[in-house]
Amino acid sequence: MENKKVIYILIAVIVVMIIILSYFVIIKPGLENSAQNHRVEGYNVAINSILTQLQQQGYVQLTIGNQTLFLVPYNPQNTTR
Description:
alpha+beta; rod-shaped; 2 strands; 81 residues
């Protein structure tokens, strides 16, 4: 009876260790890779949106709080010195 309890406890410890190991080796890297892919996708969407708006309107207005930033295409041939 006493030996069965020890065996069950050891089996439970081994199962918990396998779960923890599989989390750090398989699940966590997969989640981090997925998060990185979403960050890159968001970056690309934002840049493409800004570039599309710049091509259509000739400028882009970015508002952050109470400050506004205007982005316009730079053409060195149109500058005056």
